[in-house]
Amino acid sequence: MANPIFANLPTTIFEEMSGLARDLGAINLGQGFPDDPGPAAIRRKAAEEVLDGYNQYPPMAGLPELREAVANHYRRTQGLDLDWAREVTITSGATEALAAAFLGLIQPGDEVVVFQPFYDAYLPLIRRAGGVPRLVTLQPPHWRFDRAMMEAAFGPRTRFVVLNNPINPAGAVLPAEDLALLAEACIAHDAVAICDEVWEQVIFDGARHVPLIALPGMRERTVKIGSAGKMFGLTGWKVGFLCAGAGLTRALARTHQFLTFTTAPNLQAAVAWGLGRAGGWFEEMPAGLQRSRDRLAEGLRREGFATLPAQGTYFLNIDLPASGVTEDDRSFALRAVKEAGVATIPVSAFYEQDHVRTILRLCLAKADATLDEGVARLARARELSRAA
């Protein structure tokens, strides 16, 4: 016997495409991880902590020095005033933080507004908690919502809304007016916002991240989730930040206690050290990724591909019909990996209904040579598609 919510899930598109890339020796522009190994000083600190530091159970809520470092980081970068002792919990990655939020807060029958495209963990966890997703479909190229969409989505049973900003896979950063509209809806319906903000440091063109928790009326009704893995380009570390008012944090921390209890102390210590000594990393890292975005976009344009705006995250999207591709995104992605040797992700995989089937997601956080060869192979895939 197995719980059908999880047992009936198909193989994820990430497993499928990465598996094909490995089996076929293809370039992997699908799964979102950088080629760069991450800051050497922070990696060295983690190694030192394994050898010379504490390796037994750390506190359930996280090392005090890391919780304080997280609060200080958000004070410096986003103007937030968080009580590190009562409002910050360290989790084993942002996905565990999401699970703690969904399982710890949602009660059976609660309606949860979710914007699609979405991270694939959202819906199974919401349903396992007994929640009822209410989907709002965002459309390219700008991926925005309006008042009519909010009025249609929010109802008398709405208790939560899940916001991913910056948006994966869209690469979009929501403007201030959209955030204000969402805050207005949350306040009017007494709803809690669960904000997946793991890409908050990966924003381009001089823009700054605005957390929903900072908006008027949202301080005590927002759960803010961050990721050290995304901040420092160390995606395998799985160190997440769960920030909320003290009333919400009590439930969140207790749920975390019975999910993973705690997180590797050497990684926590290294992240705390890194947040306090990041230097220019939070300027240099997005600037480097912005250069990669521009290189990939320009290469694609030279080959006749049309790209959508990429304001943040590791991702750049291709508009397939505007690029002369008549196949849907999944069919073209399979052709590209099997026949041309380049793995990508079809954005339709991030929808449950009303799928947008015309957008292909590429990971831009790769070496120049990898990006250039990926472009060449995508051009080859398009030739093969036209000849089919």
Q: How would you characterize this protein structure?
A:
The chain is an alpha/beta fold. It folds into two domains: 4-31 and 281-387, Aspartate Aminotransferase, domain 1, CATH 3.90.1150.10; 40-276, Type I PLP-dependent aspartate aminotransferase-like (Major domain) (Aspartate Aminotransferase, domain 2). It has helices at 4-7, 13-24, 40-52, 64-78, 84-87, 94-105, 122-128, 147-153, 176-188, 228-232, 246-257, 265-276, 281-302, 329-340, 368-387; strands at residues 27-28, 88-91, 111-116, 132-137, 158-164, 192-196, 222-227, 240-244, 306-307, 315-319, 342-343, 345-346, 359-363.
Features:
388 residues, alpha/beta, Aspartate Aminotransferase, domain 1, Aspartate Aminotransferase, domain 2, 2 domains, seven-stranded mixed beta sheet, four-stranded antiparallel beta sheet, 15 helices, 13 strands, 44% helix
Give a brief rundown of this model.
The protein is α/β, with parallel strands linked by helices and 388 residues long.
Topology:
Layout: H1 4-7, H2 13-24, E1 27-28, H3 40-52, H4 64-78, H5 84-87, E2 88-91, H6 94-105, E3 111-116, H7 122-128, E4 132-137, H8 147-153, E5 158-164, H9 176-188, E6 192-196, E7 222-227, H10 228-232, E8 240-244, H11 246-257, H12 265-276, H13 281-302, E9 306-307, E10 315-319, H14 329-340, E11 342-343, E12 345-346, E13 359-363, H15 368-387
Parallel strand pairs: 1-11, 3-4, 3-5, 5-6, 6-7
Antiparallel strand pairs: 2-8, 7-8, 9-10, 10-13, 12-13
Helix pairs in contact: 3-12, 4-12, 6-7, 6-11, 13-15, 14-15
